[in-house]
Amino acid sequence: MAAVRIRAGALEAFCIEAMRRAGLSRRDAELSARVFVTTDTWGTFTHGTRQIRGLMKNARRGRLVAGAQERIVAEGPSWAIVDARDGMPPAISCRAVETAVAKARKTGMAYVGVRRSSHYGAAGYYANLIAEHGMFGMSMCNVEPCMTVPGGKSRILGTNPIAYAAPTGTERTIMLDVATSAVAATKIFAAKNEGRPIPDTWLVDEAGVPTTDPTIFPEAGAQLPMAGHKGYGLAVFVEILTAVLTGSAMMSAVHSWVADDPEPSDQGHAFIAIDVSAIMPADEFHRRLGAMSAEIASAEMAPGQRIYLPGQMEWERREQALRDGIELPEDVLISLRGLAEDSGVDPADYGIDLG
């Protein structure tokens, strides 16, 4: 069968209406749809529009408060703490970024932490949003424990993603968005569904012994951090900035946003904006960054290989998706069909065929 491609604008309009039907304001729905559809155009389908259905289920159950308005509960010239009040995480995170950028314009750099939130999608979106303002951006989030640490066997920390983005003076930023686990859980689930073993660096069993058997997860076992103590240390770094410093839930107190749990997630986010033009002229920063990038790109390559800058693959995928439409994988199409059924919004009204 020919691949189904969906125009980004049509997908965004469909998602906005589906979220509006769940009680979101138009502005919150627009901001959230932009976050998730952009993520799909990057090819990061695990954190794109497939996540909307779960968030809207939480809104109908009251775990997520569709009409909640966040508020700044403490602030200084270059920092702020935002209480999300269990509102729509992507929209609140976009506004938290606006606050960080505004403060960084005045002071050179700023930190904004968010508490009482939930799943905000891809960390890289918000880092990139900061970079669109000509600033170096960082974004991170803590999640419920699913990962052990060196020397441990139980689930101690979340996969706590961290992202950065640097402005280049063009539409393409240099950006990186990674979980602090060895791999995303979706790769373990894929191996489980396909009946194949996994590398023994991905997962430990109940005794804390590395295993190649993905079938035990998520009922048992725990994910391993990337690069051993290095990933562990980064996960702790994220936990400090997103939870300890914000007053959000920490580690075992965080509730899974996808679980059958009546309690709000109470996740924390953190955003850091550095105004490079306060340190050196923006043109000089772009020139130096371009020289760095050129040196990387001109390095000798292994036979049949290509060197990519961080984020380059995502930008190439996005350009193709905007030109030819987004080719969504089946699991995303299934989720969107469910969203259409839940919301009563007909994708055909937006020229969308979900198969």
Notes on the structure:
The protein has helices at 8-21, 26-41, 52-61, 89-107, 123-131, 185-194, 229-244, 282-297, 312-324, 330-343, and strands at residues 5-6, 71-76, 79-83, 109-117, 136-141, 162-166, 174-178, 203-204, 210-211, 222-223, 267-274, 326-327. The longest helix has 19 residues, at 89-107. It is of the alpha+beta class. It has a 7-stranded mixed sheet with strand order 2-3-4-11-5-6-7, with helices on both faces. Strands 9-8-10 form a 3-stranded antiparallel sheet, with no helix packed on it. The protein starts with a strand and ends in a 12-residue tail after the last helix. The protein is built from 10 helices and 12 strands. Helix 2 (26-41) packs across helix 4 (89-107). The chain folds into 3 domains: 1-61 and 327-355, Hypothetical Oxidoreductase Yiak, Chain: A, domain 1 (Orthogonal Bundle); 64-181 and 225-324, Ribosomal Protein S8, Chain: A, domain 1 (2-Layer Sandwich), CATH 3.30.1370.60; 182-223, Hypothetical oxidoreductase yiak, domain 3 (Wheat Germ Agglutinin (Isolectin 2), domain 1). The mean pLDDT is 96. A hairpin with a 5-residue loop joins strand 8 and strand 9 (210-211).
